[in-house]
C-alpha cells in the first residue's frame, strides 16, 4: 500500500500521497487511527524528524518503525485489559 501511494517513487510520502495511503491503511487494519495530520506528525516525531512541520515527509522506514511500535503498544494494552 505504501509503495502504491508513493506516486513519484521517492521512497517517502508527502502529505497528498499520505492522504491517499492513510484511509486504505485504516480500512485494512479495521480499527481507528488518529487523524491524518496527527498521524504524520506522530510518525515524524517518533523518528526524530521534527514532525510534520519538520520535513513533512513520511519515509517507509520511519513509518514501519512507528507502526510496529504502535502495534506493540496496542497488543500490550489488550493483554493488560484481557488479564483483568
Characterization of the model:
- With 84 residues, this protein is mainly alpha-helical.
- The chain has helices at residues 2-5, 15-29, 36-47, 60-82, and strands at residues 12-13, 58-59.
- Strands 1-2 form a two-stranded antiparallel ribbon.
- Helix 3 packs across helix 4.
- It is globular, with a radius of gyration of 14 Å.
Fraction of residues in H or I helices: 55-70%
For the secondary structure, the number of strands is: 2
* Poorly predicted spans: none
Molecular shape: globular
Question: How much of the sequence is in beta strands?
Answer: under 5%
How would you summarize this macromolecular structure in one to three sentences?
This protein is mainly alpha-helical and 84 residues long. The protein contains four helices and two strands, in the order H-E-H-H-E-H.
Notable characteristics:
84 residues; mainly alpha; 4 helices; 2 strands; 64% helix; globular
Amino acid at each position: 500500500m505504501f509503495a502504491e501511494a508513493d506516486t513519484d517513487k521517492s521512497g517517502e510520502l508527502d502529505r497528498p500521497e499520505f492522504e491517499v495511503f492513510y484511509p486504505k491503511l485504516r480500512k485494512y487494519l479495521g480499527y481507528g487511527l488518529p487523524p491524518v495530520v496527527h498521524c504524520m506528525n506522530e510518525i515524524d516525531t517518533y523518528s526524530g524528524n521534527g514532525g510534520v512541520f519538520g520535513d513533512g515527509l513520511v519515509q517507509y522506514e520511519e513509518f514501519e518503525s512507528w507502526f510496529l511500535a504502535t502495534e506493540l503498544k496496542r497488543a500490550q494494552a489488550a493483554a493488560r485489559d484481557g488479564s483483568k
